[in-house]
TrEMBL record:
GO molecular function, one term: hydrolase activity
Enzyme Commission numbers on file: 3.1.21.-
Gene3D superfamilies according to UniProt: 1.10.30.50
Keyword Hydrolase tagged: yes
Keyword terms, alphabetized: Hydrolase
Identification of the protein by name: 5-methylcytosine-specific restriction enzyme A
Domain of life: Bacteria
Keyword check for Hydrolase: yes
Organism: Buttiauxella brennerae ATCC 51605
InterPro entries recorded: HNH (IPR002711), HNH_nuc (IPR003615)
Broad EC category: hydrolase
């Protein structure tokens, strides 16, 4: 029987794009910049000359990575049986690549848009999908279900992972806003019990999409603008420049 020739790789025993993820996980505790990984790999392989950043991006769920043929295949990151699921390993936040965790970073998908361009997006929650399906039912059917359904909501225990936000960023941005929404410029809609104006600090690039928890990436918004930023279209630019 013929023995399959052993594949050789430029660096180590496996493709370098797999090694780069391992370095993030094992050498840097799950989060590293491309420069850090680059330095490490150059120390590991004397002849190392490769694009570390691209080797990271190929595995990153919230980056445009359709340059690679195996990312030109529609899939969700929660489909662990997909043959290319192994490339859904990282999440990019600012300059840092962290090990991707669906419970923390959400479920993402690769899909083709109407112009056949390969794109990525966060998958909507099961609840949002259920609301849409319920809205599409004929009214009589929906009425029937509403009547039959128990009015006492079921209790369920969930584990949520949340980003630990800096109270310094929130305090600093609220002080700079000085009681006015930094988008529509209107006064806060009401004052809180303690007499301070009610505004909400929002991240221009969402934390869940990789944004940084910094003063520059934060903006104080009135509740209307805030909801619009999340559910409508609202163009937001940095107003809180770090000095
Ligand atoms: Zn506003
Ligand atoms: Zn927000």
């Amino acid at each position: 029987m013929a023995v399959k020739p052993k594949r050789t790789y430029k660096y180590g025993e496996q493709p370098i794009r797999i090694t780069t993820v391992q370095v993030v996980a094992e050498q840097f505790g799950g989060a590293a910049t491309a420069n850090q990984v680059d330095d490490y790999l150059r120390g590991l392989f004397p002849h190392y000359k490769d694009d570390t950043r691209l080797n990271l991006i190929v595995n990153t769920v919230n980056c445009n990575r359709s340059y690679w043929s195996f990312n030109k295949t529609a899939r969700r990151t929660d489909d662990v049986t997909h043959r290319h699921n192994q490339y859904d390993r990282l999440f990019k936040r600012g300059n840092t690549f962290e090990i991707y965790q669906p419970s923390m970073h959400g479920v993402w998908e690769l899909y083709q848009d109407l112009q056949d361009k390969w794109c990525y997006r966060q998958v909507r929650s099961q609840f949002e999908e259920a609301v849409e399906a319920a809205a599409k039912l004929p009214p009589s059917e929906r009425k029937q279900i509403l009547e039959a359904e128990s009015k006492t909501p079921e209790l369920t225990v969930v584990t949520t992972r949340v980003y630990k936000r800096s109270p310094y960023v929130v305090a600093e941005v609220l002080l700079r806003a000085n009681g006015k929404c930094q988008s529509c410029k209107h006064d806060a809609p009401f004052v809180k019990e303690d007499g301070t104006p009610f505004l909400e600090v929002h991240h221009i690039e969402w934390l869940s999409k990789g944004g940084e928890d910094s003063v520059e990436n934060a903006i104080a918004l009135c509740p209307n603008c805030h909801r619009q930023a999340h559910y409508g279209v609202l163009e937001l630019v940095t107003v809180n420049k770090q000095d």
